[in-house]
Design a protein that fits this description.
about 120 residues; mainly alpha; about 75% helix; about 5% strand; two-stranded antiparallel ribbon
Length: about 120
């Protein structure tokens, strides 16, 4: 062992007095380390792009949900107003409606009666 701080991967850490500092030494024997670093850089770049796409998609979907909530609240208000008007109309026309049905039934019965009398002759 020529160097006690040498590791298998080619990096070594030295003990220092200040614990905030870390010193790394790269062993030039391991040339594939640059390839690994560039590969990791490409992966980090790809992950960054994926994260940006996810953020964009999340914003779009949040906007869609907000629009749907607004549309739903408007629709609920419209249905509520429609039901209120319908209830008012039923309350006002309730007794008239029964009278209209009775008159219609009597008129139909009279027409059928007169028609049957007319064709029997």
């Amino acid at each position: 062992m020529a160097n006690p701080y040498r590791s298998r991967q080619g990096l070594s850490a030295r003990p220092v007095a200040n614990s905030d500092e870390i010193h790394l030494r790269i062993d030039p024997i391991h040339a594939d380390l640059d390839e690994e670093i560039s590969g990791l850089h490409k992966q980090v770049t790809q992950l960054k792009h994926v994260a940006q796409e996810i953020e964009t998609e999340a914003r779009i979907q949040n906007d869609m949900v907000s629009d749907l909530q607004m549309l739903l609240s408007r629709a609920q208000a419209g249905v509520k107003n429609g039901m209120k008007r319908l209830n008012q109309t039923v309350a006002q026309q309730g007794s008239n409606h029964i009278l209209q049905v009775i008159i219609f039934g009597i008129a139909c019965f009279t027409i059928v009666y007169l028609w049957s009398k007319h064709f029997k002759r």
